[in-house]
């Protein structure tokens, strides 16, 4: 199955994002987490991230193929432009094809650790739309998802420029747009309105990261400049020294957030699992998305 076929026509897309574990124990825990979510037989796909500067590029392909084989579900491999020449990217895409991978999440990628900004690799790409264009031109059988930013990409000079960049990626051949995490649905709805007004037709999928640890999510949001609403943050702060309390607050908030998004007619939900399933499992149960 391909991403291009997973949304619309009365179907709802449910997807999960994971990252390659560094140890065998971590991989075992990841597969246990995915197994727990397989009760939701409707997952459209599982996507596997690609480390900074290609630090997990081999593992990404291996794990993406293994998940597909183990659970019999559609998978997608992430690919970035960081630290690679065009020829290296082309070779990686050939390896992905040989591994039976038909879906790619195409990203420019974040600067490698220790670098303040993204630098175009020598002989490589500067922007994600160039990566999308390469895939569409030379690997036409592959379906492509790209990233969108409800609160604007942290490097974009303005929301208007950011939206132009996104439209460029879709026009280059992307089949769907998955958003960065966000915690205020107003930001998503405003973004969706502007997205539609710009004439972008690809399905727009909200990305959801349930809060299970306040310190962790504050680090993540600080890196991507996502905003935690004051009321939500205040509620979490009450349980600063109570991990279980934080989890409960985060799950209840995510349930409310997702219900509002579902009522607004979104074509799918994309959950950032961080390789754990408990919170997402409870959210999906509450939303009655199993089956």
TrEMBL record:
<protein>
    <recommendedName>
        <fullName>Methylenetetrahydrofolate reductase</fullName>
        <ecNumber>1.5.1.54</ecNumber>
    </recommendedName>
</protein>
<comment type="similarity">
    <text>Belongs to the methylenetetrahydrofolate reductase family.</text>
</comment>
<dbReference type="InterPro" id="IPR003171">
    <property type="entry name" value="Mehydrof_redctse-like"/>
</dbReference>
<dbReference type="Pfam" id="PF02219">
    <property type="entry name" value="MTHFR"/>
</dbReference>
<dbReference type="InterPro" id="IPR029041">
    <property type="entry name" value="FAD-linked_oxidoreductase-like"/>
</dbReference>
<dbReference type="GO" id="GO:0005829">
    <property type="term" value="C:cytosol"/>
</dbReference>
<dbReference type="GO" id="GO:0009086">
    <property type="term" value="P:methionine biosynthetic process"/>
</dbReference>
<dbReference type="GO" id="GO:0071949">
    <property type="term" value="F:FAD binding"/>
</dbReference>
<dbReference type="GO" id="GO:0106312">
    <property type="term" value="F:methylenetetrahydrofolate reductase (NADH) activity"/>
</dbReference>
<keyword id="KW-0274">FAD</keyword>
<comment type="pathway">
    <text>One-carbon metabolism; tetrahydrofolate interconversion.</text>
</comment>
<keyword id="KW-0285">Flavoprotein</keyword>
<dbReference type="GO" id="GO:0035999">
    <property type="term" value="P:tetrahydrofolate interconversion"/>
</dbReference>
<keyword id="KW-0028">Amino-acid biosynthesis</keyword>
<keyword id="KW-0560">Oxidoreductase</keyword>
<comment type="pathway">
    <text>Amino-acid biosynthesis; L-methionine biosynthesis via de novo pathway.</text>
</comment>
<keyword id="KW-0486">Methionine biosynthesis</keyword>
<keyword id="KW-0520">NAD</keyword>
<dbReference type="InterPro" id="IPR004620">
    <property type="entry name" value="MTHF_reductase_bac"/>
</dbReference>
């Amino acid at each position: 199955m391909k991403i291009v076929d997973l949304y619309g026509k009365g179907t709802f897309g449910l997807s999960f994002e994971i990252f390659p574990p560094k140890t065998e124990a971590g991989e075992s825990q990841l597969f246990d987490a995915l197994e727990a979510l397989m009760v939701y037989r409707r997952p459209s796909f599982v996507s596997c991230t690609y480390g900074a500067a290609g630090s997990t590029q081999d593992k990404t392909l291996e794990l993406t193929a293994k998940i597909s084989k183990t659970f019999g579900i559609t998978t997608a491999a992430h690919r970035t432009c960081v630290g690679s020449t065009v020829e290296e990217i082309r070779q990686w895409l050939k390896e992905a094809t040989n591994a039976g991978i038909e879906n790619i999440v195409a990203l420019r990628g974040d600067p490698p650790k220790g670098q303040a900004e993204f630098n175009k690799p020598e002989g490589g790409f500067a922007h994600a739309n160039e990566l999308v264009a390469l895939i569409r031109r030379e690997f036409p059988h592959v379906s492509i998802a790209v990233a969108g930013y409800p609160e604007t990409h942290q490097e974009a000079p303005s929301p208007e420029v950011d939206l132009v960049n996104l439209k460029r990626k879709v026009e280059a051949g992307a089949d769907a747009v998955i958003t960065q995490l966000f915690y205020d649905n107003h930001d998503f709805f405003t973004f969706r309105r502007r997205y539609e007004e710009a004439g972008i037709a690809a399905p727009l999928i909200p990305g959801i990261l349930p809060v299970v640890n306040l310190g962790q999510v504050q680090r993540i949001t600080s890196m991507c400049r996502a905003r935690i609403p004051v009321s939500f943050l205040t509620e979490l702060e009450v349980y600063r020294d109570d991990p279980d309390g934080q989890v409960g607050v985060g799950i209840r908030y995510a349930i409310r957030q997702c219900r509002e998004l579902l009522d607004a007619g979104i074509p799918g939900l994309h959950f950032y699992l961080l390789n754990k399933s408990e919170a997402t499992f409870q959210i999906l149960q509450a939303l009655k998305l199993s089956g």
